[in-house]
Specification:
198 residues; mainly alpha; three-stranded antiparallel sheet; two-stranded antiparallel ribbon
């Protein structure tokens, strides 16, 4: 069973928990926090005899308390036949003293500054902006180039494929003269333009 972890002066404290016994401290013996097993340095095996691990205060404190209870239960007074005498195994003071022998304060992490909801949201805006800057420049740079290429190609095609529009009959006659096409100057603009197409 975990201890309450309401906001207090120990919330950001980091401690060193040491198993000063001669046995492995396993989840079955109380090496757990909120029903989750706590393992040693290997990350997959119990905390070995003599092993130390760095933990947040609330977890280290509970493990030290559970280990202290286990050690004191093993040392509970019994009579000659090995039957418990019924005397209390520990007092709150003796339990605290035993617990303190397994835990050592290391340092305190910097407390996060409290932020309003607006500040949190504005931080998210900056975070997303940064993410977009990292993800989008490539695609944005490629697209204008493609557009530019397409525009150039289109312009070239358009220039060569577009029929030339003449303002008046004089322009048509000038073009016919330029190309050396024989024509009848008395004909209308539309008929003369047909000679330029053929």
């Amino acid at each position: 069973m975990s201890e309450p972890t309401t906001s207090n002066t120990n919330d950001h404290k980091v401690v060193k928990f040491t198993n000063k016994t001669d046995f492995e401290f396993t989840p079955e013996l109380g090496c757990m926090y909120d029903s989750r097993p706590i393992f040693g340095k290997s990350g997959t095996s119990p905390i070995q005899a003599g092993e130390s691990v760095i933990l947040p205060y609330h977890i280290g404190n509970l493990l030290a308390r559970n280990l202290a209870k286990r050690v004191m239960m093993v040392a509970a007074p019994v009579d000659a036949k090995g039957i418990p005498t019924g005397e209390p195994v520990w007092s709150e003071e003796s339990l605290e003293a035993k617990k303190a022998s397994y835990i050592e304060d290391m340092y305190e992490e910097e407390k996060p500054t409290t932020q309003s909801e607006t500040e949190k949201l504005m931080e998210k805006v900056e975070e997303y902006k940064s993410m977009v800057d990292k993800l989008l420049p490539k695609s944005e740079k490629e697209e204008p180039e493609k557009e530019a290429e397409t525009t150039d190609e289109t312009t070239e095609k358009d220039d060569s494929e577009k029929p030339v529009v003449y303002q008046d009959k004089a322009d048509v006659l000038a073009e016919l003269e330029k190309r050396g096409i024989t024509h009848d100057k008395r004909k209308g603009k539309v008929e003369l333009e047909k000679l330029l197409v053929n």
